[in-house]
Amino acid sequence: MARRFFDDQEFQSGLATELGANASHHIGKVLRMVEGDELVVFNGRGGEWHARITAMGKKTVTVEPLAFHADDRSAPIAVTVALPMIKGDRMDYAIQKATELGAARIVVLDTERCEVRLKGDRQEKKLGQWQQIAISACEQCGLNRPPVVEGVMPLKDWLATDLPPLRLIAHPGESPFSPSALEQVDALALLTGPEGGFSDEELQAATDKHFTAFALGNRVLRAETAPVALLAALWAWKG
Question: What domains does the chain contain, in order, with CATH numbers?
Answer without folding.
Answer: 4-69 (2.40.240.20), 78-238 (3.40.1280.10)
